[in-house]
Amino acid sequence: MTLARARSVSLSGVEGHVVDVEAHIGNGLPGFSLVGLPDAALAEARSRVRAAVANSGQGWPQRKLTVALSPATLPKAGAHFDLAIAMAVLGAAQAVSQDRLDDVVLLGELGLDGRLKPIRGTLPSVLAAATAGRTRFVVPEPNVDEARLVAEVEVFGVRSLRQTLALLCGDELPDEPPYPAEDDPAAAEHSVLPRSDRLAGLDLGEVLGQAGARKAVEVAAAGGHHLAMSGPPGAGKTMLAERMPALLPDLDQREALEVTAIHSVAGLLPSHAPLVVRPPFCDPHHSASLPAIVGGGARMARPGAVSLAHRGVLFLDEAPEFRPTVLDALRQPLEHGEVVIARAAGTARFPARFQLVIASNPCPCGRAYGKGLYCTCTPQARSRYQHRLSGPIKDRIDIMQLVEPVARAEMVADQSLVEPSAVVAERVRAARQRQTQRFADAPWTLNAHVPGYELRRRWPPEPDALPAVESQLSSGWITARGADRVLRLAWTLADLAGRDRPGRQDVFAALTLRLGREPFRRDTGRRGVARRTNLIRGGGETQPESTEPVT
């Protein structure tokens, strides 16, 4: 036989496609042609595969060799095609029968000595092939645990091309030395995955004072809400953000597979930790570029920080110091829960359903709090600094929390009253359980993910709670999007309190969290009051405005 076919998987984002690797040995001058839109790393497989086959004790065909990757119109990237290419060539050279290659998917990068090296994206590759009906896989030994996370598939871990050939031929596997752990690029980067593991020892009880800020963090964790904290340096903003992962429950099986697949594609999944079970915590530096935050790449798109924080927390410390283009690029993932990266070679989609937590100072010097007596910034500098966060980004944040300096008396008095993370996490777990039961027949799991129209139609609050939101909407203090977020916050507050439905006090507390201050009704005389109040009530008559405080 001069023609053989093996199978591998091509990844686009976290989505995979089964690829047929066909090898043909024909007449002509000796040569190796690789076709099918390979990238630079894949095009170099010609040299790697030839050396690996020769160093594994197999003869290389001294004839014209053509290897085609099908479908030909699908761009293909990565060195994980090496093993499939090598086995297709050996199949064409009759070193292994075609029926042995038909029912197996081959993944692995070859070294020049024939050893198999760990690869990125094993989990999403196996998931995609399993969805397409493939059940047998051969992967490098360090990736076996990751591949076996997929149910009802048979995974074989091999160390070299020689072992792969023996496995497919039914022979005894030759003894090969294990792949050195220090050569695993993922193992060298395990310290960044996930960051929540390194924050596991931090406790919310270590934050003295800041009772309002601690409550805001609890509400954000319970409902999956976005949180913005503003205050002077040293007030505790970073401490509060770093302790949020301790309040979040473990990921369920479906969420864990989603997060693990993203980290696998990014090459941040160490072989000794094949499954991410804790919500990740990602805190990029403010000098990070747009591709580092959102994702991208020259040819093959890689996930950015927003995707690495999927099902977890993305913390932007000193948020105004980030580039405006980087901050504005967060609009799509905040609304849709995914990032779509378009390139000339194709489009990649990455999940990005994260909780955004940002911390900022009130001004460049950080002292513009209270009466601002110690602030050295000009009004123009202060205004420019505060406007680095655009209005559309602020409107997508649920909770605005002011974090003021803590007095010594508050710290002393709060030492015996502050609750540890375990106590708060139990309330968060109970609140999330109530949400899971409420949304059992819906595609959402958290209050923050429910669309506004569904929230108003299927889960409205008590009728006497709506006028407070209508007043703020008609006065222009909140937008229609902000009104929806107030209702979501009200549901989270009710879940934390164990109530079946949010009432007037829940809505008032939600407005306070949304505005960063206690709300007041104000009749501004603006037109369109009836239209705005109908957005909350879903139609019907409007209520008269008053200038009394909401109580």
Automatic annotation (TrEMBL):
Residues 523-551 are annotated as: Disordered. SMART domains: AAA (SM00382). It comes from the Bacteria. Residues 223-407 form the AAA+ ATPase domain. GO terms for molecular function: ATP binding. NCBIfam families: YifB family Mg chelatase-like AAA ATPase. Belongs to the Mg-chelatase subunits D/I family. ComM subfamily. This is Magnesium chelatase family protein. It comes from Actinopolymorpha rutila.
